[in-house]
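ARCHIVE CARD
CATEGORY: sequence design from structure
SOURCE FIELD: tokenized fold
FIELD CONTENT:
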């Protein structure tokens, strides 16, 4: 048999097999996010440690996250997540604050902006998959787009950072029935320089073929401690999500 014909036949077979089990998914999540703690010191060595939640006041806000996924080969999933997060804080601090390149006097009315946008590419493999249980393990490449800005007394100082963070991805789904399930999903990793945890626990409800809803709780925690920045934060999410499989 001509080798070209053989290669072409194998390619067509692989393509048809992959197409038969491939699924495109869209996932949108919204709700309200509430701050737990958010402690800042910039620079990490020499700056003033202050809190955006204890000394200043940060209100809860509405959030939206979106994910596009591609499942193939029955056990493989690749996904892209866009998860913006932006909060504002205001108030006064009874002591002077050294932040970045400026000093803000004691009791100066302050306005702070805190941004932590996350963009993640994940590959996950289902190590267990049955009618009742799905367990997947994978890796996530995360790009963080962060900013902390402090304004007051006619001055403004801003610290920005864009960086790469590798994370471990875990997904566990228990199907209690044909319509109800419990989902636990996480991206997390800890190192001497810092840590990051993004964990969801939710009840899933299957509406029709290809459509599911979920409601639950998400926790986002982590931060970094180095010479240029010290920032550790915790956020609580009340979550409502919809997933569509095409």
């Amino acid at each position: 048999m001509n080798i070209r014909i053989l290669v072409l036949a194998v390619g067509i077979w692989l393509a048809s097999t992959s197409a038969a089990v491939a699924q495109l998914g869209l996932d949108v999540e919204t709700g309200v996010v509430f701050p737990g703690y958010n402690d800042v010191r910039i620079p990490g060595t020499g700056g003033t440690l202050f809190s955006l939640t204890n000394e200043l006041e940060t209100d809860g806000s509405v959030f939206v996250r979106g994910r596009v996924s591609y499942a193939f080969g029955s056990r493989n999933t690749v996904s892209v997540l866009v998860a913006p997060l932006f909060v504002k804080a205001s108030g006064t601090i009874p002591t002077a604050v050294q932040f970045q390149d400026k000093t803000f006097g004691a009791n100066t009315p302050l306005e702070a902006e805190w941004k932590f946008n996350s963009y993640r590419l994940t590959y996950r493999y289902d190590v267990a998959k049955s009618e009742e249980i799905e367990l997947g393990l994978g890796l996530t490449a995360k790009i963080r787009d962060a900013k902390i800005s402090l304004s007051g007394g006619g001055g403004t100082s801003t610290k920005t950072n864009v960086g790469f963070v590798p994370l471990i991805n875990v997904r566990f789904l228990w199907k209690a029935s044909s319509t109800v399930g419990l989902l636990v999903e996480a991206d997390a990793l800890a190192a001497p320089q810092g840590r990051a945890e993004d964990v969801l626990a939710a009840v899933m409800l299957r509406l029709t073929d290809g459509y599911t809803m979920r409601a639950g709780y998400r926790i986002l925690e982590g931060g970094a401690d180095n010479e240029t920045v010290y920032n550790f934060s915790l956020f609580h999410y009340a979550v409502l999500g919809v997933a569509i499989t095409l």
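CARD ANNOTATION: Confidence is low (pLDDT under 50) at residues 9-20. The domain at 23-245 is CATH 2.40.128.90 (Lipocalin).
SHELF: design records, drawer C
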